[in-house]
């Protein structure tokens, strides 16, 4: 599954008068300046990432995409550069949603109210972790909804495989409006 957000990965980069590589792009994580600095082998204070307003992202713009390419092109050419991926390039290059193997055991009382759940989740991370461990950690709250269940045990695991990498994608983070145990 692909996020297919409204605008594809894109950005611009330039070298400021003080020698800082500035990258402006559609991202949810401006902290990627650290990753770009590592790729370019420059000090972290020589890279600035500016995030633009997102039309939509649904957690899918949390990974590094065009940042390193933009930084490298600006550094090597010394000129402002622009990169816009086509939809096809985005679909081919982006991490996909985690496939899961799910196992639920649910207990109910005599009135049919759910009183306990034992949940086992196994995510296919693909060849690289990206945000897989974080996503698995957040699943504790995700998988209990929409019911209030007093006794829940969640075992969320991530496995490396020979499949394409996977990462965060829509609806993979807990609801911020409600706690995991509150009714909807």
Provide an overview of this structure.
There is one protein chain. The protein has 184 residues and is an alpha/beta fold. The protein has two domains: 10-93, 2-Layer Sandwich (Aldehyde Oxidoreductase, domain 4), CATH 3.30.365.10; 100-160, no CATH class. It contains four helices and seven strands, in the order E-E-H-E-H-E-H-E-E-H-E. It has helices spanning 33-40, 67-77, 87-93, 132-142, and strands spanning 10-15, 21-25, 47-51, 81-84, 100-108, 114-126, 151-160. It has a four-stranded mixed β-sheet, with helices on one face. Helix 1 packs across helix 2 (67-77). The longest helix is centred in the middle third of the chain and has 11 residues, at 67-77. The radius of gyration is 20 Å and the shape is elongated. It starts with 9 loop residues before the first strand and ends in a 24-residue tail after the last strand. The relative contact order is 0.17. Mean pLDDT is 79; it is low at 171-184.
Concise overview:
By secondary structure, the protein is of the alpha/beta class. The protein has four helices and seven strands. Helix 1 packs across helix 2.
